[in-house]
Amino acid sequence: MVTVTMKLTSRVQHLGCLLALCFLAQVLWDIPGVWALDNGLAMTPTMGWLHWERFMCNTDCKEEPDSCISEKLFMQMADLMDSDGWKEVGYEYLCIDDCWMAAQRDSKGRLQADPIRFPSGIRHLANYVHSKGLKLGIYADVGKKTCAGFPGSFGYYDIDAETFADWGVDLLKFDGCYCDSVEQLADGYKHMSLALNKTGRSIVYSCEWPLYMWPFRKPNYTEIRQYCNHWRNSGDVYDSWQSVKSILEWTSSNQKTIVSAAGPGGWNDPDMLVIGNFGLSWDQQITQMALWAIMAAPLLMSNDLRHISLQAKMLLQNKDVIAINQDPLGKQGYLLRKEDNFEVWERPLSSLAWAVAMVNLQEIGGPRSYTINIASLGQGVACNPACFITELLPTKTKLGFYEWTSCLKTRINPTGTVLLLLGRSQTFKKLP
Ligand SMILES: *[C@@H]1O[C@H](CO)[C@@H](O)[C@H](O)[C@H]1NC(C)=O
Ligand SMILES: *[C@@H]1O[C@H](CO)[C@@H](O)[C@H](O)[C@H]1NC(C)=O
Questions:
Q1: Residue 197 Cβ contacting ligand 1 at under 6 Å
Q2: 2, 85, 303, 329 - which has most CB atoms within 10 Å?
Q3: pLDDT in tens, 124-138
Q4: Selected catalytic residue, list 97, 114, 175, 271
Q5: CATH architecture of 20-32+332-431
Q6: What is the domain partition of the chain in residue ranges?
Q7: For this structure, is 271 an active site residue?
Q8: 340 noted as active-site residue
């Protein structure tokens, strides 16, 4: 590494690149155990749709029949995921969040859906969703109540796992409200993982274990990875730039702890994509899409597929960006450098390719130029001796071959991102 840097410095001086070079030795963090939850699922980050951010706990089907949490809502979303190209690009899991339950368990202690809002029941809904070539996700809570106050799974882990398997559910989001202690929380998450396994049905297990653990102690990600397919670390995403920005800040400030925990079978979950809603500008939507790809995040949209702009739809269905998110190598990206209100993130990909995202975090003024030294990307090897660079966002453009010693100048809108793909050749191998 040292010899490389010295050689580079002398060559770069000739070129007059202005950037300071900083090879970050710290990008090589500890590698925890590679063991992931052994259910064969989530080999790439889960993709789908989750109701929470957009529809929350709306139970008033009298006043708002089109946006209350009901089987009708999920059937309509299933129809659209099938007919409008979502399924084709990989969005597969249609997920129910909190507020689907009846207030009480049935006489045998089983959870039941609200009879007014889900008159046909969850099994029927699962069948419908499966008939569209999709999978169904459901929600429950490790504690005594769900966050919205519906029956919790504490004391009922086995019976709830069996109920979900029996209904044909394919994913469980397991929340962490109303637990008495961190021990109870950890035991509960483990218990449910084993209970799901015992059912024999393949069910993606989405946890919030670290999120609820952090206030008390640093979570053991090696352990969490053995039990969960993905895990939420930070609070709920809101439909705002402030929220997306704070999730990115949390992720970069904790990257030494969390990045190496991600890999096929287990992922850090920065929460839903809010693209296509009300709160993010176009540039901010690009930033969320680009950075969720860099972070190898589950891509769970929370929006209204019945009312979504063509522009937002094209961004969410961008196959090049999805290919980065779903890259089979399964290594999460990280913040490489922060300077002058710019952030540079990068992610290693299969076929020796790299994804690079440059974010302009300055919220005053217009587009700003940022010049990057090619040699500083991809741990010094991405473009050695040269690479082919394609801009994927905001606009797909082939930028051409760049030598190791060259520089690349970009212009980035305020709160926007330029997402680049650095390949060994012009024909970067894409996912089918
Ligand atoms: C349950 O766990 C075993 C061993 O850990 C694994 O081989 C099996 O595939 C799992 N089954 C399911 C349904 O996840
Ligand atoms: C974290 O969990 C793993 C697997 O259960 C265990 O081997 C390791 O000792 C734990 N680390 C700490 C610091 O407790």
A1: yes
A2: 303
A3: 999 999 999 999 999
A4: 175
A5: Sandwich (2.60)
A6: 20-32+332-431, 47-325
A7: no
A8: no
